[in-house]
Amino acid sequence: MKRLAGAIALALAFGGSAPLLAQDAAQRIDTPSGPAILSRDDIHSVLTIGGQRFVFDGMPYAAFGTRLGDVVLLSVSSGGSMCPAEFVWLDTRPGLVRLSDRFGTCSDLAEVTWDAESLIVTMPSMRPGEGQVAFHWDGKSAAVREQALASAPSGVGVDAPARVWIGRHPAEFLAAPEQTARLTALLGPNALQEAQRIISVATFFTEEAGWITASGCQPHQCDVTQGAVALHPDGRVGIALWQQGEVARVWGTFDGMPPPAIARVLQRQ
């Protein structure tokens, strides 16, 4: 009850209660300080509100997102596939218009919650072996506090049969703490991070040509990214990644033709 009361008090302090998703195609929302308008100036996004002008340098794409009373979450992006989104809070209260520091993991899968102390944006980490990252903003200053959350165990040991992954999501496999050591040994930490980023919107594992496979892409970037994971009953793991403008890469041993999911990625140009 105390925690709930604190959450309600925080929402009221920010001038609202329940979260609302703003989807204004004109990139304009009404606020207590007048219209908040997002526009583009060359390669920069510009926010104007209450007689103030905020420029997001090198970020030509910006959008209004979740709204909590008088506070609005904005996403900003350079448009590149390596970092589809970063975030910033906008306080729209008269006389207090300001932005928080920019934050994010380069994931655009953001979930907004709050507690008695702060507004919280949680999203997947892009660092191998990490699960979610929570960004806390208490509204007292521009500072945003980052908190790495423990990865949830998959419950599947590294020696478990490949078939146990059927029906499960490849992102779970790639982020599972039980798999971190062997995936890092196979891919290296940088490529594992890329795999976690790219294979995000994906099919579930199914059986295909003697392998357990799944394919996916990066959210909102499926035309320029693609990846696949293949698990063999004998314990082998194969992974393929492709990004537009680069040659597709593959890791693993296939003893002949790779499974179809891997082959489809390798055919991308």
Q: Helix share of residues?
A: 10-25%
Percent of residues in beta strands: 35-45%
By secondary-structure content and strand pairing, the structural class works out as: alpha+beta
The biggest sheet, with number of strands, parallel, antiparallel or mixed sense and barrel status, is:
6 strands, antiparallel
Question: Could you please describe the fold and organization of this structure?
Answer:
This protein is an alpha+beta fold. 16% of the residues lie in helices and 36% in strands. It starts with a helix and ends with a helix. It has 5 helices and 19 strands. It has helices at 2-13, 170-175, 180-187, 189-198, 260-266; strands at 20-21, 28-31, 34-41, 44-49, 52-56, 61-68, 71-77, 86-91, 98-99, 111-114, 119-124, 132-137, 145-148, 201-202, 206-208, 211-217, 225-231, 237-243, 249-251. The model is unreliable at 1-13 and 15-26 (pLDDT under 50).
List keywords for this structure.
five-stranded antiparallel β-sheet; 269 residues; six-stranded antiparallel β-sheet
Can you lay out the helices and strands and say which pair or pack?
Blueprint: H1 2-13, E1 20-21, E2 28-31, E3 34-41, E4 44-49, E5 52-56, E6 61-68, E7 71-77, E8 86-91, E9 98-99, E10 111-114, E11 119-124, E12 132-137, E13 145-148, H2 170-175, H3 180-187, H4 189-198, E14 201-202, E15 206-208, E16 211-217, E17 225-231, E18 237-243, E19 249-251, H5 260-266
Antiparallel strand pairs: 1-6, 2-3, 3-4, 4-5, 6-7, 7-8, 8-9, 10-11, 11-12, 12-13, 14-16, 15-16, 16-17, 17-18, 18-19
Short description:
It contains five helices and 19 strands. It is of the alpha+beta class. A hairpin with a 4-residue loop joins strand 10 and strand 11 (119-124).
